[in-house]
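Journal club prep — side note

Before the paper discussion, L.F. wants everyone to see what a predicted structure for a comparable chain looks like in token form. Sequence:
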Amino acid sequence: MNQKERRRYLIAALLNEQPQYSNMKISENEQEQKYLLHSLFNIRMPMPAGEDFLKIQDAYLQEKIRSKGITDFRDLKPVQKGIYLWQGDITTLKCDAVVNAANSRMLGCFCPNHGCIDNAVHTFAGVQLRTACAELMNEQKHDEETGKAKITPAFNLPSRYVLHTVGPIVSGRLRENDKKLLASCYRSCLEFAEQNGLKSIAFCCISTGEFHFPNDKAAEIAIRTVKEYKMQTNSQAEVIFNVFKESDYEIYRELLGAN
């Protein structure tokens, strides 16, 4: 199968799972097909998928990620000992674990084609990720607390694992408790990485998007918490600060003294 054939197979299979969409005609337009497939991935509830579906989905997603270009963190130059700054798409980064900014349900973003990192991570990891998260949450029997984290395999992402953490939602003035909770997100992820023998971890800009944490304050907390953790525990973990926006890159570059 080529990518076009895989895409049509996946769309048809996902539509067939939804009785109200099972007779929908699939457009011949490539961009419309991609948009529809992305949407169907996003709205699919956590449930098992057949072996054939997973095989074709995995081939499709892995080729999509390869076509975007995979970056191995080992090819990056550290800006400080054990600390890296990288601007790019975290779903294309190869390291032991990438951090996903999740919500308290921990099931990913159900909003079709939304631009948040939670949407991107779940889309390119594949439907297995939502199912794995659902299993964790069913076992836990309550929403995830802010500042805590969970770990799952990364499935089709170049990384080995995904660390899911729930950052604080800022409404109005930034409070001290918001700062403490954000620092807890970073510590929780670092602790999970250490417990699971992970040597490299890439942090996104937790809480700065939909959760409205001020970007500059968030970066200060991220860097300070990581450095304190590494110093207090003598951790040798390689930490990558991943940014997507140019404005965040400039904030981290200045704080880290990167050229």
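L.F.'s comment for the group: The first helix runs from residue 3 to 17. Keep this in mind when we get to the figures.
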